Amino acid sequence: MGFSAATRHLRLTVTALNSGCWASVRAFEVYDRPLFDPSLDLALGRTATSSSNESSALGPGNAVDGNPASLWSSAFSDPQWLQVDLGSVQSIGRVVLSWENA
């Protein structure tokens, strides 16, 4: 199912039910239409920020670097967030999240 929105910043907020957790995301991809071409990821290489990082090696830039082996992982607490700055207002039609298999 597609949607349509226009924004410069997208934020993913993660909260566990009744306990803390790590939020770990391998990819945070953004496309301008519901059907997408991975080479047109609007978030690829953009500035990403986060509420916290589990370590300096697991920073928010890993979620937008195009490398499926890297990831962002938060500190163990709730809530946590990951945000990408698209550089300017963009039309958004699809967001794809790839979570760590943990």
UniProtKB/TrEMBL annotation:
Superkingdom of origin: Bacteria
Domain F5/8 type C: 35-102
Gene3D superfamilies: Galactose-binding domain-like
Any single Pfam family the record assigns to this protein: F5_F8_type_C_2
Protein name: F5/8 type C domain-containing protein
Organism: Catenulispora subtropica
